[in-house]
Amino acid sequence: MAIEMTGSATKASIEDIQNFEAKVGAKLPEDYKEFLLQYNGGSPRQPNEVTSHSSASVRSFLGFNSESVRDLNKVTESYTGRIPKSTIPIAADESGNLIVMSLEEVRFGSVYFWDHELEVEDEVLERSPNITPLANTFSEFFKKLEIIQPKKIVVSQAEKDAAWIDPEFLKQHKE
Fold it and tell me: Domains along the chain?
C-alpha cells in the first residue's frame, strides 16, 4: 500500500531549491526536487518503516519553511560536522535519527539511515559506522516506505492474571 503524505503548510519554489543548492555547493537529484516541489517536506499519514531496514522510518521529511524545526536549511546547518560531509539530511524518524542523501558524484542521490546513537566524528561516508544504505535513489527510497500494519496480540488468561496493575491506576480507569 502506498504511503499517503500530508504536505507542508507552505509551498517550495524553484528559487528555494536553487538557493539551497548554492548553499550546499551541489545540485539535488531531480526526483528529490520534484518531491520538494510537490510536498515541501511533509509527513506520512501512517506509521511506516523502510522495507530494507526495519529500524528506519520517517516521521517527517524536511522542507523549506523558516518557521519550522523541520526546515531543510536549519537542519542541514545544525548537523554540519555531525553527518558525513557529502550528505544532507532529508527526513527524521521518531528517535532523532536522520535519513540522509549523498551528493557526492559516486553515490549521488543514494539514501542512508544515520543512527545518532552511534555518531562518530568521521566525515567520510564509507567509514561512518552509523550509516546504513537504504536505496540508490530518492524515488526507490520512497517506494520502500511501507505502512506498518497493527499486529493483534493474544494474551492468555494466565498472563492476564499474573500481570500486576497499580491499584491507583485501576481506580482511575474503572467505570
Answer: 5-173 (3.40.1580.10)
